[in-house]
Amino acid sequence: MQLIVAVDKNWAIGNGSKLLVRIPEDQKFFRETTMGHVVVLGRKTLDEFPGGKPLKGRNNIILSRDEKYKVDGATVVHSKEELLEELAKYASDDIFIIGGESIYKLMYQYCDTAHVTKIDYAYQADKYFPNLDEEAGWKMVADSDEQTYFDLEYYFVKYENDNPIPIM
C-alpha cells in the first residue's frame, strides 16, 4: 500500500479544512500517480473535492463514522476494521492513502511506500503528517531536483517503510 501527501517544512498538510497550497506540478503528479487505482480518504477530504464528488478514474473508498453517510460513485466504510476488510480485496500496490490527517495517521504504518511533496516553507497550519524522517522503519530512497512554483521551492521525495503492518 502507498500514500501520497504534500507537506511543508514542519510536515504540516492543512489549515482548517484547506490544503496549504496548490502547486500545479504536485497536482499533476497526484493525478498521474493515483489514476486508475484505489484511493482511501476521509469524509472531510471528500468535502474539499470539486463538488464534493469522488475522484474520477479511481476507486474511491471513504471512511466515515456516520453509519448513514452514503456517496454515489464511492464505497463508504465506517471503521478501521471495515476499511481493512475492504482493502484486502485489492492488490496492495493498487491502494493509495490520500488523506486527510486522521486517515494518514490511521493508515501510514500499513504503507510500504510514501510519495511526499516537500515544500520548503512553513505555513500557518493545524493539520500534520507524521515526520517520516523521524519515524522508525521509514527511509528516504529517492528525491527530485529542486522544483519551483513562483518563489516556492519543493521536492518530490519517495520513502520506503521497512516493516509495514500487513492488511490481513
Key words describing this protein structure:
Dihydrofolate Reductase, subunit A; alpha/beta; 4 helices; 168 residues; 18% helix
Task: Give a description of the structure.
The chain has 168 residues and is of the alpha/beta class. It has a single domain, classed as Dihydrofolate Reductase, subunit A (3-Layer(aba) Sandwich), CATH 3.40.430. It is 18% helix and 35% strand. It has 4 helices and 12 strands. The strands form 2 sheets. Strands 1, 4, 5, 6, 7, 8, 10, 11 and 12 form a 9-stranded mixed beta sheet that branches. Strands 3-2-9 form a 3-stranded antiparallel beta sheet, with no helix packed on it. A hairpin with a 2-residue loop joins strand 11 and strand 12. The radius of gyration is 15 Å and the shape is globular. It starts with a strand and ends in a 7-residue tail after the last strand. The relative contact order is 0.25.
